[in-house]
From TrEMBL:
It comes from Oncorhynchus mykiss (Rainbow trout). One of its GO terms (biological process) is DNA integration. This is Transposase Tc1-like domain-containing protein. Residues 1-28 are annotated as: Disordered. Residues 29-85 form the Transposase Tc1-like domain. Pfam families: HTH_Tnp_Tc3_2. GO terms for molecular function: DNA binding.
């Protein structure tokens, strides 16, 4: 009522700034695809959107995922066994099972 009295119409007023390229449903589909398969690349998601008829850049896809708290990280590579563990295992390979039950492998990782 206040808007009608002030502007004389109930139509929504124009906003400043550019409209978003992706609709909320498009953003939701992107987030779902990444949650189903976390190894999906931004390029694959961009191609998927192009198939539906929406042309966006890779940076737009990354921005949408970042906005939904999905950040691209890669895991640090680490050897499964250290060299000292391997030499110990080969040197004591002929020992019986009771010896190996008392062996504890530690990678000296500090857990929070």
């Amino acid at each position: 009522v206040r808007k009608y009295k002030h502007h004389g119409t109930t139509q929504p007023s124009y906003r400043s700034g550019r409209r978003r390229v992706l609709s909320p449903t498009d953003e939701h589909t992107l987030v779902q695809k990444v949650q189903i398969n976390p190894r999906t690349t931004a390029k694959d998601l961009m191609k998927m959107l192009e198939e539906t008829g929406t042309k966006v850049s890779i940076s737009t896809v990354k921005r949408v995922l970042y906005r939904h708290n999905l950040k691209g990280r890669s895991a640090r590579r680490k050897r499964l066994l250290q060299k000292s563990q391997t030499t110990f295992a080969t040197a004591n390979g002929d020992k019986d099972c009771t010896f190996w039950r008392n062996v504890y492998w530690s990678d000296e990782t500090i857990w929070p």
